[in-house]
Amino acid sequence: MTLNRRLFIQQVAFFSAGLAVGSKTFANQQSKFYKLKQKTGGEFRLIDPAGQPFFSLALNHIDPATLRYPENQHLWLNKYQNSMQKWLQEVRKDLLSWNFNSVGWVQEVVTRGVTNHRHSGNFTYENYQWLDLPYCHLLPFADFHQWEAETRYPDFYSEEFALWCDQVAREHCLRMKDDPNLIGYFYLDCPTWVHTTKESEFRGPLFDPDKLKTEKGRIELFDLATKYYQVTHDAIRRYDPHHLILGDRYNAQRPWAIEVMHAAKPFVDVMSYQHFGKPEEIREDLQMFTEKLEMPVLLADSGVPDYSTWELGYFKQDTERYAELLQQLKKVKNLIGVHFCGAYMRNKVRKYGLKDRQDAPDREAVIPIKVANQEFLQW
User: Fold this and answer.
1) What is the chain's pLDDT, residue by residue, as a tens digit (379 residues)?
2) Exposed (0-12), middle (13-18) or buried (19+): which is 44, by Cβ within 10 Å?
3) CA–CA separation, 130 vs 40, rounded Å?
4) Measured between alpha carbons, how far is residue 378 from residues 47, 57, 365 in Å?
5) Pairing mode, if any, of strands 316-317 and 305-306?
6) How far apart are CA 123 and CA 81, in angstroms?
């Protein structure tokens, strides 16, 4: 605890002075895995296993169950012969055709309500092998996502939390540790450190934000977050010394605490954010975070649904806003990836995606997105 307090005070002092504690990358920087490289002048780049610069332009939310509704399951059974492998080979062709070069978080929202808001299951190691694209994988260490409506907060200081993290790492990381296609591991999607949403309001935030008004409270949060990131980091590194740790996917549009991010710095390689604001706001916020923390940043989730089209029974994609977002992000120093919350297939809950439930691409969305992706990757 004393060491944590000293680290916090040191980091705050450096931050206030406009400096930063040097971030430590724990990933084994062998050539066959994705790694970070800091150029002369301090700018970070993601490097692929072949040693070439790589920018992760990924699609999020890829759920095969969208093809298994009663009215369309014949497509799954006949076109894909009830085979996940055959379907993922089709997914791969689509993503490459649309000029995405990787896969972000694959789980898709499948129920949405104040008492039950859940996502589909994660991909297995075999699923990723069949997909055969660079990918990121989310580890289920805890469930205090902002949309999670059912579980209580864990005790990061307890033995049971450490044992659970070890179980997660054994289950996931040991199998993936030698996979050159794995970019890195995410943790939570929009953790509720100091905020709530309508789904999580019943339990309140994990930490009382009023305590941040005092130095004692800020230190308390730093200590708590340090324990969380240390336990999760150590669990991964017991089984996978190679791959990048991408950490929590903070919601940049909700209240956040810099103390949490400073606590994460020694234990993650990248700062990841979700942001659904205007393109210029996203650029400004990401630039602010990378300057505050002197860390590479990843836009881990951002979408452009056109909610004005709700009367159609689904949401169109605002492709002009998508193209503008990519243009704005060219200006962000230390950005290593953009993961698009476009969804591969439109289900009945999210109601937007790049293919409909009859497995047909939405050409109005796909064509301009493909063009914008190509131009961005060429840049």
Assistant:
1) 333 444 444 444 433 333 333 334 445 455 799 999 998 778 999 999 999 999 999 999 999 999 999 999 999 999 999 999 999 999 999 999 999 999 999 988 767 777 766 777 889 999 999 999 999 999 999 876 454 545 678 899 999 999 999 999 999 999 999 999 999 999 988 888 998 877 777 778 889 999 999 999 999 999 999 999 999 999 999 999 999 999 999 999 999 999 999 999 999 999 999 999 999 999 999 999 999 999 999 999 999 989 888 777 889 999 999 999 999 999 999 999 999 999 999 988 888 999 999 999 999 999 999 999 999 999 9
2) buried
3) 38
4) 16, 12, 20
5) antiparallel
6) 19
Measured at the CA of 112, the angle between CA 107 and CA 113, to 5 degrees, comes to 150
CA distance 344 to 33: 26
Q: What is the pTM of this model?
A: 0.88
Q: What is the rounded distance in angstroms from the CA atom of residue 61 to the CA atom of residue 106?
A: 4
Cα distance from N-terminal residue to C-terminal residue, the chain: 47
CA distance 224 to 231: 11
